[in-house]
Automatic annotation (TrEMBL):
Pfam family, one: SQHop_cyclase_C
Region listing for Disordered, in residue ranges: 442-464
Protein name listed in UniProt: Squalene cyclase C-terminal domain-containing protein
Biased composition (Pro residues): 455-464
GO MF term list: metal ion binding
Source lineage: Bacteria, Bacillati, Actinomycetota, Actinomycetes, Kitasatosporales
Record field: compositional bias (Low complexity): 442-454
Keywords: Membrane, Metal-binding, Signal, Transmembrane, Transmembrane helix
Protein species of origin: Peterkaempfera bronchialis
Domain Squalene cyclase C-terminal positions: 57-149
Residue spans crossing the bilayer: 414-433
Signal peptide (UniProt feature, chain positions): 1-28
Length: 464
């Protein structure tokens, strides 16, 4: 559910509108700004998004198709054909193939793009051959430690391993049985998870890769992404019934050391993520060299999805509210809607039971639709939402701050002004009532001076 701050903003908005004093927030379209730099690569007609697809074409297309499928939007045939056409002969996908007639370079095929494409095509259905070839590619390029690297032949990392495990699960394969030299995908994940020999605050976290000395350093994004695989889940994440108990840290009794057992892995990762979200005011943060810490929308989104998959939707709800209140700025790219961001937030909305047609005031479904080719069909809910408030599908709503920092629980400056107006209007009414009541009391006292003066009425908010 939405946070108290977001609900309060809506109530205050209604009060101000009734008083006739509200100002509407400025609207923004989702077209490229005139000064936006053109893409270095011609963007294919079937692709979602207008930015250069060189490094994320397959990734963003797969996310967009997955997310739209969860919203019961039938994508354009050309959008699906584009994704299938990007697949290499050996079954893998690169990040982007500008020339699909040229042979792929096996060493540059992308395990992350392949894993997401498999999940998208599996969800869509009707693409058994392409999805099966993708799974075969994933099996073939498993490393001897049980994990996967971003490109074939590299060292395994937690994110790539998690995504590969997601793809296997989506396709109906058991990651515990997909092995290289006796080590499974779950063994690969376990090699990146911090256990009982780590400081208490880091137990359950995942490292991206071991450091030069072989040690593991907790990494928020690696933890958020790998935790979905540890929970035995894949995209899209469906809403689940919450567990009775909050996420628990790994059991470290009797001097336990070593890796977190698989049966505790998801819970331990969820516990770490809950603590990190609390530390960051319900969002994960990232720090880039030379820059101040800033909210990491992507990592926060994956953390929410992983917590829901692990059975802790209640512990993900505040972070989902934060994304609803602040995610619009992430969805806005230099050249229009960022389809990866919009798709990820649509998946978050679905997993947490929030309304993707009014996700913090933004119609995420329509924003994603607008970023690509016209869909083959849309559900009645999408058509109704678009026709009822077409401008609202492209603009932040009452709970969107439009900034990276959210120190007011999702209020925008417009709604903070609204609060002041409500206080002023309400204060004026209160003073007028006080003066009127005071005059009435004075007349009553003059007419009956022998009566005892009644106790004053309590001020608003006092107990009666």
């Amino acid at each position: 559910m939405l946070s108290a701050a977001v609900r309060a903003g809506a109530v205050l908005a209604s009060a101000v509108l009734l008083a006739g004093t509200a100002a509407a927030p400025a609207l923004a379209d989702d077209t490229a700004s005139p000064e936006a730099s053109p893409s270095a690569v011609a963007v294919p007609a079937g692709l979602y998004g207008k930015d250069d697809p060189t490094y994320d074409g397959v990734w963003r297309q797969s996310l967009a198709l997955l997310a739209l499928h969860t919203a019961e939007v039938a994508p354009a045939d050309e959008a699906v054909r584009w994704l299938v056409g990007q697949q290499c002969e050996d079954g893998g996908w690169p990040s982007f193939r500008a020339d699909t007639e040229a042979d792929c370079t096996a060493a540059t095929e992308d395990s992350n793009a392949t894993a997401l494409a498999v999940q998208a095509l599996t969800a869509l259905g009707g693409h058994t051959t392409a999805a099966a070839k993708g799974v075969t590619w994933i099996r073939r390029h498993q490393n001897s430690d049980g994990g996967w690297s971003y490109n074939p032949g590299g060292a395994s990392d937690a994110n790539s391993t998690g995504l590969a495990v997601n793809a296997l699960i989506a396709a109906g394969a058991d990651p515990a049985q997909v092995r290289k030299r006796g080590r499974s995908g779950y063994d690969g994940l376990a090699s990146f998870q911090l256990g009982c020999d780590a400081p208490a605050a880091q137990r359950g976290a995942f490292a991206y890769q071991p450091g030069k000395s072989g040690g593991l350093d907790a990494n928020d994004f690696a933890s958020a992404q790998a935790a979905l695989a540890a929970a035995g889940s894949a995209l899209p994440v469906a809403p689940v019934t919450r567990r009775e108990q909050p996420a628990a840290p790994p059991s470290c009794k009797d001097g336990a050391k070593g890796a977190v057992p698989q049966r505790q892995s998801a819970e331990a990762a969820a516990h770490f993520l809950v603590q990190r979200l609390a530390d960051g005011k319900q969002r994960l943060m990232q720090t880039l060299p030379g820059a101040d810490p800033a909210p990491d929308y992507n990592a926060t989104s994956w953390a929410v999805l992983s917590l829901v998959a692990a059975g802790h939707p209640d512990q993900a709800s505040d972070a989902a509210d934060w994304l609803a209140g602040n995610g619009y700025s992430w969805m806005r790219g230099e050249q229009g809607v960022n389809p990866s961001a919009a798709a990820t937030l649509l998946l978050v909305a679905r997993a947490t039971g929030l309304d993707p047609y009014n996700f913090g005031g933004s119609n995420v479904v329509q924003m994603l639709i607008n970023s690509g080719p016209a869909p083959a069909a849309v559900p009645s809910a999408a058509a109704s939402a678009a026709s009822a408030a077409p401008d609202a599908t492209l603009a932040p709503g009452s709970s969107v701050t439009g900034t990276d920092e959210d120190e007011n629980g999702g209020f925008s400056p417009v709604w903070l002004i609204a609060m002041v107006l409500v206080v002023l209007v309400g204060g004026g009414v209160f003073l007028r009532l006080n003066r009127r009541n005071g005059a009435t009391a004075a007349r009553a006292a003059a007419e009956a001076p022998e009566q005892t003066t009644p106790a004053p009425a309590p001020a608003p908010g006092e107990d009666r």
